[in-house]
Amino acid sequence: MGVEVVVEGLTKSFGKQTIWRDVTLTLPPGEVSVMLGPSGTGKSVFLKSLVGLLKPEQGKIVINGVDLVRCSEHKLYEIRKLFGVLFQDGALFGSMNLFDNVAFPLREHTRKTEAEVRRIVLEKMEMVGLVGAEKKLPGEISGGMRKRAGLARALVLDPEIILCDEPDSGLDPVRTAYLSQLLIDLNAQIDATILIVTHNITVARTVPDNLGMLFRRELVMFGPREVLLTSDEPVVEQFLNGRRIGPIGMSEEKDQATMAAELAHREAGHADGPPDEDVRGVVPQLEPTPGLPPRGAVRRRKDRVMSILHTLPPEAQQGIIASLTPEERSHYRVMADAGDRTGPITPSPWPRQGGVL
Questions:
Q1: Torsions phi, psi of 112, nearest 5?
Q2: Region entry Disordered: which residue ranges (predicted)?
């Protein structure tokens, strides 16, 4: 299973400009997480900091007991072997065909024979649906294929942590849907810890187990998808609904006077463009392709959510309970009116057969 990534009090600046400060979160092992935020909030900087490409000024990044911020170069090199990284453009070598691109980390960092390299490369290319494209150059294929080739290369060293920097960038909605399904299928097969940086609302609402939001140089929230999808935090609600009304402006955050004027304008019944429809709620999450094993991450996350259900606002409790299947309600011993609970829910044992979340 993927490893846990613990981030404590992380602060990153470039010169006098603070990108974000005091970021604290834990990426649960074997789960898919997404980091959201308006453009320019430092999402990609956060991802590069996690893998050690950028060095934060303060805080810790602890993986397997090693703090990447303060460890030696040798230790950092060893921990980096746990990572696979998918960059925005795939970061493929233009002069190499896809086979050689995917094989590059194996030839560079291992002593495997060419027969072993070929077996592993073809296995990963099959995993991402690129069998038969081994001899093509990056310039001869579509953006979606380049993304999948980049993902295959990120997988060849069998990483326990996969970082994806805006994997949907430049892709049409259909290709984005295929890539989203691919990431869920990969998690089902290898149970890796995955972090996706994205602006895509559909990806954010349907793919991850956990959601985070960077805004105003801080981590606004991070937690299970059910908690953020039912949150009334203004910036989270605005972003996940893709609305103009809220703290996020075109360039910088809005001041209170601007927000008050917008609210008064809206309450007066005036419309500027399409109506702002609130779609807050726990939408169905993508499931693995039929035939693949169930994702253990889903069960672990739901156990975590139900243990803190009593701490959430009543509307959030009701929304989360409404998203449960009858079998899940029985497992967690909750009823439709369980929003009145005053303590954590203790689940009953999961059945050995059936009942897979």
A1: -70, 150
A2: 338-357
- Structure token digits, residue 343: 């303590």
Query: Strands, DSSP E only, in 205-322?
Result: 210-215, 218-224
49, part of any domain: yes
Structure tokens at 292: 């693949």
pTM: 0.85
306-350 pLDDT, tens digit each: 999 999 999 899 999 999 989 898 888 875 445 455 566 766 666
Q: E strands along the chain, which residues?
A: 5-14, 17-27, 32-36, 58-63, 66-67, 83-86, 161-165, 193-197, 210-215, 218-224
Strand partners, 63: 66
Q: Which DSSP state fits 274?
A: S
Residue 314: burial class (beta carbons within 10 Å; 0-12, 13-18, 19+): exposed
Please tell me whether residues 250 and 170 are part of one structural domain.
no
Q: Which of 224, 252, 286 is the last residue of a domain?
A: 224
Q: Is the pLDDT of residue 88 over 80?
A: no
User: Contact 203/32 with Cβ under 8 angstroms?
Assistant: no
351 within a domain of the structure (yes/no)? no
Is 280 within a domain?
no
CA dihedral 186, 190, 191, 192 (to 10 degrees): -80
